[in-house]
Amino acid sequence: RKLQANADEGAVDPPKVEDKIGAVPNGLQTDSDVVKRESESISKRSLRSNAEKFEFQAEVSRLMDIIINSLYSNKDIFLREIISNASDALDKIRFLSLVDKEVLGEGDTAKLEIQIKLDKEKKILSIRDRGIGMTKEDLIKNLGTIAKSGTSAFVEKMQTSGDLNLIGQFGVGFYSVYLVADYVEVISKHNDDKQYVWESKADGAFAISEDTWNEPLGRGTEIKLHLREEAGEYLEESKLKDLVKKYSEFINFPIHLWASKEVDVEVTSDEDETSDEETSKSSTSEEGEDEDTEKSEDEETEKKPKTKKAKETTYEWELLNDVKAIWLRSPKDVTDEEYTKFYQSLVKEFGDEKPMSWTHFTAEGDVEFKAVLFVPPKAPHDLYESYYNTNKANLKLYVRRVFISDEFDELLPKYLSFLKGLVDSDTLPLNVSREMLQQHSSLKTIKKKLIRKALDMIRKIAEEDPDESSDKDKTEVDTSSDDDEKKGQYTKFWNEFGKSIKLGIVEDATNRNRLAKLLRFESTKSDGKLTSLDQYISRMKPGQKDIFYITGTNKEQLEKSPFLERLKKKNYEVIFFTDPVDEYLMQYLMDYEDKKFQNVSKEGLKLERDSKTKELKETFKELTKWWKGALASENVDDVKISNRLDNTPCVVVTSKFGWSANMERIMQSQTLSDASKQGYMRGKRVLEINPRHPIIKELRERVANDPEGESLKQTAYLIYQTALMESGFSLNDPKDFANRIYSSVKSSLNINPDAAIEEEEEVEEPEAENEAKEDAGASKVEAEPVEDEEDTEPSDVHDEL
Ligand SMILES: Nc1ncnc2c1ncn2[C@@H]1O[C@H](COP(=O)(O)OP(=O)(O)OP(=O)(O)O)[C@@H](O)[C@H]1O
User: Fold this and answer.
1) Cα 603 to middle of ligand 1, angstroms
2) N or C: at which end does the chain have fewer Cβ atoms within 10 angstroms?
3) Average model confidence (pLDDT) across the chain
4) Is residue 431 predicted with pLDDT exceeding 90?
5) Whose CA is nearest to atom 28 of ligand 1?
């Protein structure tokens, strides 16, 4: 016989307070109890009186208040959150069953599925899963007493730009049930515990009781939502079907709805009751009549029963989703829209945001797996927070369709942890613990391939971006709408995840060159846009061997840097690196396409030869030697003729392998950096002088005439300090610098260097008595205008003010 039931079948009475009043054992409840229960309205409902009561943790309570009072119109999201939790719970038990099959149980309990049932009359929507379930302790902890890390973040977010749609991302999705329900019961059975009921009206408290009255679940969780008056639409089957289709399309477990169906049935009827219309309408009923006639002749003689056709509502489980996982399909059969929706379900973000890019592939060979990787449209705000200390793996690992974990940080290196997606491996063993899996040799191969594919995907974002292509390509007239969508995508990618690429260069020596190709930066020739190393190389001057760069706080400052003077004049391009991470990056990125990198504020800058260099060196020998001696106390390694200056008298450059001035600044700003190490890492300093500059030329003359002159030494020292500052260093002793400037100012103003500072006139201290008098006077004076105010003309007041 067909699975059939009437509307009430399977629907369990909503438990009410009275259910357990006086702890009447379940079997002993009387009919009157039931009647009483039935008559109770939702508004009067209160939590079971003898249940154990708990208070919600304060943040959770605030969160629930926000949800309850929310005017958010899209209340649909609750279903997606509940189904997502059910799916997680099913994943958990399926994972455990890999090692111990017993945990699944037998019969229906072993069916890994989700069931949705409606009770229109009592306005209850129930969602049940046969997942792992929750013990009593789990219920207490998970649903109310322990605030998740995302709770306060979510509460905060809601208070500013509240988009409740984001709730799932903060790990507090369960509470969204209060968008539609005013009373919720969670019935749960875990293999290690009895069946319990959690219930709450979201009024600051929840209660837990051992469940002795509901149908035993076997294992899993049933959430009963007692819907609010205005949430009646969620009792419509069509609405639920639409929602499951819309939001839970990618759930890998069957979702069934206890759906009604109108069927034609034949029912026996009394002749008198049967209307003419009905009997004459259908031939089947006539045939039935014949059959019944035969029967009645056999069984009954006095009356001839008739049958008629009638409509009857039957119920059966209707499957709402297609459980075929998207990653198992061929990429060419999956539409962009499907990928977008799949991405949204993975990250639990159901807005309009589309992933920036994706790659879907099958790896074959020794290690076989399928994977889908996505570049999200935006970087999470905390992407680089405690970057090296936290595990932020975002890939889900499946082994032969079974979800294993989303906490495997062995799948991708840290710098690619911004990617989302999943890997389904056929090679990894199923029946081993997560720990053993973590050490499996195939993981290394998977990781290697994932990195390659990920970097390819990122490279393609750039390749397909019309803004990125060279001028040659730009002349093509035909620009498709696809181009429009891809326009500017790489800049967007770079702004969101550029730092990750840089960290990749630091961390991943194997892929350093591939990553360097993805680098973008501004330069003296990039015209305010981003440019790449390949583009830089294509613009290099004939004979230019090195790639020039400079580091600092911002482009505007760097553009004025004396280090660029001659390079700019000679039309060399210089890269601006303004992110603190760039300093680290450049310690690892030594060369690119056989070109070395040269920091233009460091030693070793080679430009085209100046024919006079040797000669100049000779003519300035006396000055450079003298100056080095004058700076003996300053840890200056050398004084040399510069090849990088044009209109600045001198700069201080650092040795090739020590810290640049910018790096010194970065290190000093790190609270935990070790001062003693700083001294060690500080680059040696070389004062470079501009032999064409009048100040330098004059100094040379003076040194030749009077090398011992004290004021000359002072001036040379002051010039050095100024050069230090202009070169980006911070001065050890700013006071000393200031004093030197003032004495120089004195001399330019023709003030005697020993001119005394005028003494301040001693004011006689008033005696204590006078002081008291004055004080009183003062308060009187202050009080007077207030008293006068009313008598004074407004214009006077104004004048006084
Ligand atoms: N159907 C269920 N079966 C078993 N445990 C559940 C179920 N629903 C919720 N839980 C437990 O309650 C916890 C809280 O659920 P909640 O939805 O608020 O957060 P989450 O599931 O961790 O995150 P998200 O909202 O992103 O799914 C879950 O982590 C889980 O431990």
Assistant:
1) 59
2) N
3) 82
4) no
5) 142
Distance CA 759, CA 749 (A): 21
CA 247–ligand 1 middle distance (angstroms): 17
Q: How far is the CA of 171 from the centre of ligand 1 (A)?
A: 8
Residue nearest to atom 23 of ligand 1 (CA): 171
ipTM above 0.85, yes or no: yes
Q: Whose CA is nearest to atom 13 of ligand 1?
A: 142
Nearest to 133 by CA among 55, 181, 194, 47: 194
Atom 24 in ligand 1: residue holding the nearest Cα: 171
For residue 686 the two structure tokens come to 């070389």
* Neighbour-count burial for 180-198, b at 16+ CB within 10 Å, e otherwise: bbbbbbbbbbbbebebbbb
Q: How far is the CA of 142 from the centre of ligand 1 (A)?
A: 7
Contacts of 452 (CB under 8 A, 6+ apart): 511
Name every protein residue with a CB atom under 6 angstroms from any ligand 1 atom: 81, 84-86, 88-89, 129, 131-134, 142-143, 168, 171-174, 221, 348
* Chain Cα centroid distance, residue 417: 10
Dihedral angle computed from the Cα positions of residues 156, 160, 161 and 167, in that order, rounded to the nearest 10 degrees: 20
Query: Hey, what are 439's tokens?
Result: 């050490």
User: What is the side-by-side order of every strand in the sheet holding 124-129?
Assistant: 52-55, 205-210, 195-200, 181-189, 220-227, 124-129, 114-119, 255-269, 306-319
Closest atom of ligand 1 to 92 CA is 4
Question: 3-state SS of 459-471?
Answer: HHHHHHCCCCCCH
CA 371 – CA 362 distance, rounded (Å): 6
DSSP H stretches of helix in 368-433:
none
* Mutational pocket test of ligand 1: of 64, 80, 82, 88, the residue with most ligand atoms within 8 Å of the beta carbon: 88
Tokens of 3: 């699975």
Residues paired with 273 in a beta bridge: none
pLDDT in tens, 455-502: 999 999 999 988 887 554 444 545 566 677 888 899 999 999 999 999
Task: Kindly give the interhelix angle for 442-464 and 489-507, rounded to the nearest 10 degrees.
Answer: 140
Report the distance separating Cα 574 and Cα 601, nearest Å.
11
How much distance in Å is there from the Cα of 207 to the middle of ligand 1? 18
Tell which atom from ligand 1 comes closest to the C-alpha of 171: 23
Q: Is residue 665 scored above 90 in pLDDT?
A: no
Contact (CB, 8 A) for 686 and 638: yes
Residue 176 alpha carbon to ligand 1 centre in Å: 11
Annotated binding site for ATP: which residue ranges?
81, 85, 129, 134, 142, 148-150, 169-174, 221, 434
CA distance to 263, 367, 373, 425, per residue, from 441 (Å): 58, 10, 22, 13
Q: Do residues 7 and 124 lie in contact, with contact meaning Cβ atoms separated by under 8 Å?
A: no
| Euclidean distance between CA atoms 535 and 525, whole angstroms | 10
Residue type, 261: K
